Amino acid sequence: VAKTHGKNGFRFFSEAIDTRVRNDLELEAGLRQALQDDGGGLWMAYQPQLHAQTGQLVGVEALVRWRRTDGQQVSPGEFIPVAERSSLITELGDWVLTQVCRDLATLRNSSVELPKVSVNVSPHQLLHGCGLVERICDTLARFGESPQRFEFELTESALMDEDGSVVLDAFHAAGFSLSIDDFGTGYSSFGHIKRFYVGELKIDQSFVRGLPEDGENAAIVRAVIQMAHALSLKVVAEGVETPLQAEFLRHCGCDILQGYLLGRPMSPDQLVGYLRARCSVE
Ligand code: C2E
Ligand code: MG
Ligand code: MG
Ligand code: MG
Hints:
Elements: H1 6-36, E1 42-51, E2 57-67, E3 73-74, H2 76-86, H3 89-109, E4 117-120, H4 123-127, H5 132-143, E5 150-155, H6 157-160, H7 162-173, E6 177-183, H8 190-193, E7 200-203, H9 205-208, H10 215-230, E8 234-237, H11 243-251, E9 256-257, H12 268-281
Parallel strand pairs: 2-4, 4-5, 5-6, 6-7, 7-8, 8-9
Antiparallel strand pairs: 1-2, 1-9, 2-3
The protein binds ligand C2E and magnesium ion (MG) (3 copies).
The site of one magnesium ion has 4 residues, from strand 6.
């Protein structure tokens, strides 16, 4: 690309790379510092997952949040990829799980016992995660938490990779449930999925966005739910923002709904308020 735009084109091109590299290095340094300060500026948000038919809380997804020392909030969509490339992801993943356990204890003090917590695990955690499952079990044991309440969200690439699939078996053997995140955006097939102990698929929000008008996405969502059910898998729809989307998904037999319509990702404090408010209306 650079050559065809001549000397100047190349300069702009390399300046753009410079800026990106500098930005990444800055994020990496900030994140490393945050982890050294035992997660200074990092915290976990929890987003409710509701039973599509009854509206009951089936669990929450744990989502990491970061406010830098300059007060700027950085989205995980930005810093998770940086953490993955720099292998800080292992440390970050350990911090996330520990913080989830701490938050569960805090919630318990407010008499909130969550049925299930889903924690995201990115591809690099699986591949370079020697002893990942063992470490997870150790952390849970330290806090007296049982594996049965934990679910791990993996992406389709975990199913496609030899090493990844070994780790999947280890998760299952330890008693954890597994969910395939962003389903439909990768290259896995139902043939792959049925070979592993996966209990749940999360339909990516890009398919949910255009519902119900978008005929193609509507057809995809309907077909995914049918095939998943034929394999005894539960289906979660993510990114549900409107009542019409929820209605369509319910109609298709989707099991679990997650999205701004049902609840935004929130701090443990806010989650207590959210659950109390729901109890009083039910
Ligand atoms: P994800 O696991 O697919 O998470 C869903 C994302 O969609 C979250 O973005 C969530 O805040 C957002 N979302 C939820 N409901 C709605 C909605 O109704 N509309 C829209 N437009 N968005 C909605 P978030 O929190 O920015 O996280 C982005 C990604 O970062 C996650 O995607 C996940 O892949 C990664 N991530 C987040 N936390 C962690 C973590 O603790 N560990 C790892 N390894 N990855 C994480
Ligand atoms: Mg997820
Ligand atoms: Mg997702
Ligand atoms: Mg996603």
